[in-house]
C-alpha cells in the first residue's frame, strides 16, 4: 500500500489515496502507521476518497483509531495531495468531511500547492450540539476543575468539539496532565480537544493543543479556529489573529458571525510503501 506523509504546521498525518488503494481495516491501520516507534509516525490517518457530494472526500482517524470529524491542517494537505495527484482540477477544491463540505482555496506556485486557505464553516456554540453537558446557549469562561486546578473554558465546535482555556503562562503548563483530564471529563460525551492559549496581543496568540485521541500535537487547525472564536467571544482578541503553535503559524479570522477562515501551509514530507500485512 502506497502512502504519503504530510503536515500542516507540524500537525502530521499519513495519507492514503483510495482512488488507487484499498484498505480493509482503517482503525487498525491508523493505530499501526501512527506509532512513532514501530510505524510511520503521525497524529493519525487520513484517506483521500471519491465523493458524490463534492470533488473529493476526506476520511480521518486519530492515532488511537477513533474516527474524527474534521481537521483543518489535514484538509489543506488532502487538497494538495488531490491536486498534485490529478484527482481534482477545480480551485477552490470542495472536500466532503464528516463535518460537512468545506472549500479549500489552493495557493499555487509553479503548478504545485504551496499553501491553502480554508472556509472552515460557522462555529457551533449550542452546548447540546458541541456536545457538552452544560446548560445555557453558550459556554463562555465556564469554570471547570481538572487534576486539582480550576480553569475557565469556552466551548466551541468546528465540526469537532473544543474546550478553549486562556492562561497567563503557557510554557510551564503541564498540558498532558490537564489536557487528558479535560478530554475525558464526563461533561463531554464524545470527549473533547483542549486548547491552552496565552494572549500576546489583540492579533496574536500562542497555543498548545491536547488533541482527542492523539495527545499533544504540534498544531491543530480546528483548534486554532476555536481559539479565534473564543477570543472574540471573550473580548480577548480581535477578529483576525495569528496563532503561534509548536509546528508553525496559522492565520485565522472570524467577525462574530458566519464562517471561520484559516490560512496555513501544506507540506509533503515523503512517500513510501506500507506492507499489506502490516496491520
Return the CATH class of the largest domain: Alpha Beta
Task: Summarize the biggest pleated sheet.
Answer: 18 strands, mixed
Average per-residue pLDDT, rounded, comes to: 96
Give the ordered list of helices and strands. EEHEEEHEEEEEEHEEEHEEEE
Number of domains: 2
Name the poorly predicted regions: none
Helical residue percent band? 10-25%
Distance between the termini: 11 Å
Let me know the number of strands: 18
Oligomeric assembly: single chain
Rg for CA atoms: 18 Å
Sheet-strand content, in percent, reads: 35-45%
Question: What is the structural class?
Answer: alpha+beta
From the spread of the alpha carbons, the general shape counts as globular
Q: Architecture of the largest domain, according to CATH?
A: Roll
Classified in CATH, the superfamily of the largest domain is Diaminopimelate Epimerase, Chain A, domain 1
Number of continuous helical runs: 4
CATH names the topology of the largest domain as Diaminopimelate Epimerase, Chain A, domain 1
What does this structure look like?
The chain is α+β, with helices and mostly antiparallel strands. The chain folds into 2 domains: about 1-120 and about 265-275, Diaminopimelate Epimerase, Chain A, domain 1 (Roll); about 125-260, Diaminopimelate Epimerase, Chain A, domain 1 (Roll), CATH 3.10.310.10. It contains 4 helices and 18 strands. The protein has helices at about 25-35, 70-85, 175-185, 220-235; strands at about 1-10, 10-15, 45-50, 55-60, 65-70, 95, 100-110, 110-120, 140-145, 150-155, 160-165, 195-200, 205-210, 215, 240-245, 250-255, 260-265, 265-275. It has an 18-stranded mixed beta sheet that branches. β4 and β5 (about 65-70) form a beta hairpin. The chain starts with a strand and ends in a 6-residue tail after the last strand. The mean pLDDT is about 95.
Amino acid at each position: 500500500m502506497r502512502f504519503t506523509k504530510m503536515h500542516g504546521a507540524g500537525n502530521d498525518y499519513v495519507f492514503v489515496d483510495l482512488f488507487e488503494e484499498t484498505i480493509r481495516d482503517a482503525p487498525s491501520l491508523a493505530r499501526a502507521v501512527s506509532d512513532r516507534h514501530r510505524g510511520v509516525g503521525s497524529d493519525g490517518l487520513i484517506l483521500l476518497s471519491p465523493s458524490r457530494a463534492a470533488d473529493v472526500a476526506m476520511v480521518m482517524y486519530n492515532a488511537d483509531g477513533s474516527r474524527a470529524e474534521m481537521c483543518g491542517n489535514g484538509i489543506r494537505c488532502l487538497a494538495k495531495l488531490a491536486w498534485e495527484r490529478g484527482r481534482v482540477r477545480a480551485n477552490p477544491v470542495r472536500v466532503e468531511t464528516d463535518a460537512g463540505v468545506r472549500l479549500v482555496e489552493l495557493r499555487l506556485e509553479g503548478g504545485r500547492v504551496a499553501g491553502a486557505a480554508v472556509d472552515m464553516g460557522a462555529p457551533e456554540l449550542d452546548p447540546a450540539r458541541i456536545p457538552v453537558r452544560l446548560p445555557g446557549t453558550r459556554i463562555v469562561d465556564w469554570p471547570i476543575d481538572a487534576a486539582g486546578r480550576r480553569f475557565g473554558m469556552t466551548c466551541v465546535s468546528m465540526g469537532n468539539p473544543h474546550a478553549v482555556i486562556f492562561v497567563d503562562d503557557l510554557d510551564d503548563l503541564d498540558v498532558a496532565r490537564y489536557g487528558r483530564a479535560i478530554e475525558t471529563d464526563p461533561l463531554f460525551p464524545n470527549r473533547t480537544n483542549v486548547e491552552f492559549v496565552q494572549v500576546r496581543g489583540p492579533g496574536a496568540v500562542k497555543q498548545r493543543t491536547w488533541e482527542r485521541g492523539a495527545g499533544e500535537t504540534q498544531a491543530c487547525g480546528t483548534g486554532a479556529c476555536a481559539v479565534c472564536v473564543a477570543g472574540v467571544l471573550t473580548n480577548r482578541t480581535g477578529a483576525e489573529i495569528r496563532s503561534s503553535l509548536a509546528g508553525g503559524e496559522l492565520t485565522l479570522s472570524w467577525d462574530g458571525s458566519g464562517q471561520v477562515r484559516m490560512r496555513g501551509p501544506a507540506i509533503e514530507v515523503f512517500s513510501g510503501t506500507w506492507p499489506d500485512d502490516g496491520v
